[in-house]
């Protein structure tokens, strides 16, 4: 079975600073990788996804992520954060065979401070 | 397009009571899912429906039942609510089961408290 680990439960950062949210996964088969964002009291919104091809994926709101197969990682980055980026971020994986639902990490709360 | 809608938004139950959470999507998607979200645990899959007429268990199905009423609607039922079922419930849909060409879209969630 696949699993997803988000090592940081909270990441405080100052406005305009860069940020990296870490995600590692384990799976014995090929996977699809996703990052979702959840703003307070809202549902989940897709930030970006890796399905195949280029390992650097660009998403909405200036976020990007890099798929590293050898490290089994899919870290999310933004070069300069805004107060409005304060939210919870979830990394998720889906197998490309069988039950193709999402397995989520436990989430990372990004707190952007002025 | 409303996307994925869920009702109710909030609900408080007493232990042992039953209720049904409703979910509907207007994107003509074949696959639908129910997740629960608990603090520090991310979202966990309860049940899913690959297509109209089929349902399958997910990671945490105990204490729940589902009905895929038609292509648009996928309901989640708690027959005898327990405090351990206090959670936020999310419904999602995708064109087919997730593959290289499609992704899941989520509803706004139902916040359920069982006393």
Written description of the protein model:
Chain A is 0% helix and 53% strand. With 114 residues, chain A is mostly beta strands. In chain A, strands 2, 5, 6, 10, 11 and 12 form a 6-stranded mixed sheet that branches. A 4-stranded antiparallel sheet of chain A has the order 3-9-8-7, with no helix packed on it. In chain A, strands 1-4 form a two-stranded antiparallel sheet. Chain B contains no helices and 11 strands. In chain B, strands 2, 4, 5, 6, 9, 10 and 11 form a 7-stranded mixed sheet that branches. Chain B has a 4-stranded antiparallel sheet with strand order 1-3-8-7, with no helix packed on it. Chains A and B meet through strand 5, strand 6, strand 10 and strand 11 of A and strand 5 and strand 10 of B.
Keywords:
heterodimer, A: 114 residues, mainly beta, six-stranded mixed sheet, four-stranded antiparallel sheet, 12 strands, globular, B: 115 residues, seven-stranded mixed sheet, 11 strands
What layout of secondary structure does this protein have?
The complex is a heterodimer of chains A (114) and B (115).
Chain A: E1 3-5, E2 10-14, E3 19-21, E4 24-26, E5 31-38, E6 44-50, E7 56-58, E8 64-68, E9 73-78, E10 87-95, E11 103-104, E12 108-113
Parallel strand pairs in A: 2-12
Antiparallel strand pairs in A: 1-4, 3-9, 5-6, 5-10, 7-8, 8-9, 10-11, 10-12
Chain B: E1 4-7, E2 10-13, E3 19-25, E4 31-37, E5 43-49, E6 56-57, E7 65-68, E8 74-78, E9 87-94, E10 105-106, E11 110-114
């Amino acid at each position: 079975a696949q699993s997803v680990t988000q090592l940081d439960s909270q990441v405080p950062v100052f406005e305009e600073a860069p940020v990296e949210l870490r995600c590692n996964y384990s799976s014995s088969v090929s996977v699809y990788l996703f990052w979702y964002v959840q703003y307070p009291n809202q549902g989940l919104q897709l930030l970006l996804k890796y399905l195949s091809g280029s390992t650097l994926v660009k998403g909405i709101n200036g976020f990007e992520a890099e798929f590293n197969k050898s490290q089994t990682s899919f870290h999310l980055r933004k070069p300069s954060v805004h107060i409005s980026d304060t939210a919870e971020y979830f990394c998720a994986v889906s197998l490309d065979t069988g039950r193709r639902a999402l397995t989520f990490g436990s989430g990372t709360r990004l707190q952007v401070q002025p | 397009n409303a996307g994925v809608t869920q009702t109710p938004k909030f609900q408080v139950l007493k232990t042992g009571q039953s209720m049904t959470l409703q979910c509907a999507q207007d994107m003509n998607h074949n696959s639908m899912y129910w997740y629960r979200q608990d603090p520090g645990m991310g979202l966990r899959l309860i049940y899913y429906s690959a297509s109209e007429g089929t349902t399958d268990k997910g990671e945490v199905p105990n204490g729940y039942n589902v009905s895929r009423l038609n292509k648009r609607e996928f309901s989640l039922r708690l027959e005898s609510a327990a405090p351990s079922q206090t959670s936020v419930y999310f419904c999602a849909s995708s064109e087919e089961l997730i593959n290289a060409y499609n992704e899941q879209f989520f509803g706004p969630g139902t916040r359920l408290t069982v006393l």
